[in-house]
Amino acid sequence: MRTFLIIASLLYFSYTVQAQEDELVILKDSISETDLRIAVIKPSKVSFYSAILPGLGQAYNKKYWKIPIVYAALGTTTYLYIYNDTKYKEYRSIFKKKKLDENSTDLTFDILQRAQEYHKKQRDGYMLLTVGMYLLQIVEASVDAHLQYHSTDSKLSVSPQIIREPISGNTKLAASLTFKF
Predict the structure, then answer these.
(1) Are 104 and 62 in contact (CB under 8 A)?
(2) HEC readout, 39-105
(3) Are residues 82 and 162 in contact, defined by beta-carbon separation less than 8 angstroms?
């Protein structure tokens, strides 16, 4: 476990960061005579902010409603990691006491060993899930920053369709992706 934390911290602190200037994008409107000036959000800056403090990238993207979701996911997985770690250590200490004095508890060696293995497996799984949630919130903030200024008009649509098979006559529900030019 100590080795994992050392490797994780080395990877975290070896992340290279480059400062970038904010750009202004000038959009020409074909109908209006005025230009729209939009401050571009850099996805690399958003990723950096999310890596420093979970939820900060979502705040920088002005998607404040996502911050409680980020902290609920990270908090839940962290809590479950700590709970299973505590239970693992508890069963381990009972197991050690039972080795010294076999009459110290009513539980058998087999039960204590299985309980240790179960909680250790759960603990390790929740550690991976916590790291996964942490990385997922960084990726989500970065993707949101990438897609913030893309057009989402009605030229692209996804709609359900009912398709009838010509041979069997069965109907199936499918999704249709439509591009309009």
Answers:
(1) no
(2) ECCCHHHHHHHHHHCCCHHHHHCCCHHHHHHHHHHHHHHHHHHHHHHHHHHHHHHHHHHHHHCCCCC
(3) no
- What is the rounded distance in angstroms from the CA atom of residue 139 to the CA atom of residue 47? 7
**Tokens encoding 135:** 């990385």
Q: Which of 150, 153, 157 shows the shortest CA–CA distance to 176?
A: 157
Structure tokens at 171: 């109907």
The residue type of 151 is S
In degrees, rounded to 5, the angle at the alpha carbon of residue 93 between the alpha carbons of residues 114 and 113 is 15
Contact predicate 41/61, CB 8 Å: yes
Contact 94, 115 (CB under 8 A): no
CA separation for the pair 162, 174 (Å, rounded): 6
Which tens digit of pLDDT belongs to each residue from 132-153?
999 999 999 999 998 887 766 6
Looking at residue 75, its pLDDT comes to: 96
- List the chain domain ranges: 43-151
Collect contacts of 112-121 with beta carbons under 8 A, ≥24 apart: 115/87, 115/91, 116/88, 116/91, 116/92, 119/84, 119/85, 119/87, 119/88, 119/91, 120/84, 120/88
**Is the pTM value of this prediction over 0.90?**
no
